[in-house]
Specification:
The structure is a single chain. The protein is built from 7 helices and 9 strands. The chain has a 9-stranded mixed sheet with strand order 2-1-3-4-9-8-7-5-6. It is an alpha/beta fold and 235 residues long. It is globular, with a radius of gyration of 17 Å. The chain has one domain: 3-Layer(aba) Sandwich (Rossmann fold), CATH 3.40.50.
Amino acid sequence: MRAGSDVAAQPKRILYVTLSAGFKHESIPASITALREIARQSGKLEVVQTEDVSLLSAAGLRNFDAVIFFTTGELPISDAQKRDLLAFVRGGKGFGGVHSATDTFYKWPEYGELIGAYFQNHPWTQDVSVRVTDPSSLLVAHLAPSFRIRDEIYQVRDFKGDRLHVLLSLDTSSVDMRANGVNPGATEFPLAWTQRYGTGRVFYSALGHFDSTWTDPGIRRMMLQAMLWLTGQDR
């Protein structure tokens, strides 16, 4: 009985992949520090950061309960590794992405299905108001009904809105809708969402461009709840 209790008490392990094959964000070190601190303070999580994408394989992923990307570009992984990552999530594990994780793997359509959308551009980099679209969600309830933050705000394309559960969206009254790059007629700018993928779980947040995002108490709490949810510890 004691041995079983010890196993159950082991922190869930998250592989945090921060390799940039395109633009490299200056806030990546701050994000690493934040996620490690959040995990350690929770007592329920362990975050292992890496730029070694060889770990994205059936053998490497066997040691983890979830994967989170803060990445860009076409990461150098094989077709077999791609299949392994999708099977990992479909089989009941978690996949998360922050900020430029949607600016990744444009040439791999199944990745777009997994994360839910692709980055198109960022019309605004400023203080904005963000609406909590689902205040009943444990991931963002503490941020309801809205909050302000300074960040680089993404507009996405190929948004899989028919199956994604949107948690946060831009309050468009807080920005200039005539800014360069804004799609004509666009009214919705989702900034965080979840979805089920097979028996696994997916979470994405477009926030994270600045160091200040990673020290924001509300965002840190959202990331805690997201990591617990991704590893099946939300209840």
